[in-house]
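User: Before I run my own analysis I want an independent prediction to cross-check against. Here's the chain; please return only the structure tokens and, at the end, one sentence I can use as a sanity check.
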Amino acid sequence: MLNEACPPSRGKARAYKFLLRPTSGQQGALGEMLRDHCSLYNGALQERRDAWRHASKTTVRYGQQSAQLKDIRAGDPERQGRWSFSSQQATLRRLDKAFAAFFRRIKAGDKPGHPRFRSGKRFDTVDFQKDRDGCRWDSTPHDPTTRVRLQGVGHVKVHQHRPVLGKVKTISVKREGQRWYIILTTEQPRPEPLPKTGSVVGVDMGIANFLADLGGAFVANPRHGAKAAAKLEAAQQALSRCKRGSKRRRKGVETVAKLHRKVRRQRLDHAHKTALGLVREHDCIAHEDLKIRNMSRAPAPKPDPDQKRAFLPNGASAKAALNRSIADAGWGVFLAILAAKAEGAGREVIAVDPRNTSRRCPKCGHTAKENRPTQEKFHCQACGHNAHADTVGALNVLRAGLARRDANPA
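Assistant: Structure tokens:
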């Protein structure tokens, strides 16, 4: 896929995420806002289910449910009437999108699960469709007293660690554990492309090394999940011994969630820094078009033909360890971040077929499984060329990317 800089006339959407610092009273109001929007979501879902089951398979649309909001707010002013009308419309749109995705997957021949009711613990976000419609973003660059006004909550302090560029379009309030965040989506002019460097690079992603380029440089795999595995295991074991519904169990749940959030933030930080380094140094970046979902799929069971209800070994245990390493590397997150940064910087990103990139000799073109006797070593059986397998893969990825670019000029 080629990503090219768009014309300056087209705006670029960008999201900012800031920590909220609500008072104890505002924190309670934010919790009530989530609870009431969750109740609205579940009530709208129940109406759709009842209409389908008991009213001759009648389909209820978003427009019909949105038209009922005025009566719902008037009938329950203490819970539904105190919140923003547009935020409630956004909650109904979220349900409508869930049903649209459900029917789209059915039409594609998949077996999707039906949209489910949400518990208060699984409903963490309230969206405001427009600034100054139930919410107002009050910001002055480098002003430590930045606040956001939310209908029914009041003016909440915001830890704005960077200036917000562009016009604020939408605002979302999100709960993560015991913290609250605000997410702003802005529309801003297309940034100026970075100056040309004249450099092109191919990268090979892996488990032993997170990334390797054709120059022999490597980016180590930080393995954030593996490093936190011991703490996670201890926290999850402690959680399993807690009585359900107890205060001790709630603390245990928060401990486990906090560890997972830390790993996620570390993985994101590493992906952002690595992608930024590539975008700053190279005009064209070629990478493997990895099918991560297929790569991390569990192996199919092997029934034993000689014994009923018995199965033969299928390598599931070893594959599970590999799947954990793939998930810990975070290739998908990294590639998404790389594409976004390259688009803003006017760089070109090319995804190529990964097959045989580490088995094809860059000298003579001989392709064979035996060319890669170990994880790291490449030894061509035809011409005797020796190199690191990841470096060979990066060189083949770049050649395939440049060939694709020349075959499909912009």
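Sanity check: Residues 200-407 form one domain.
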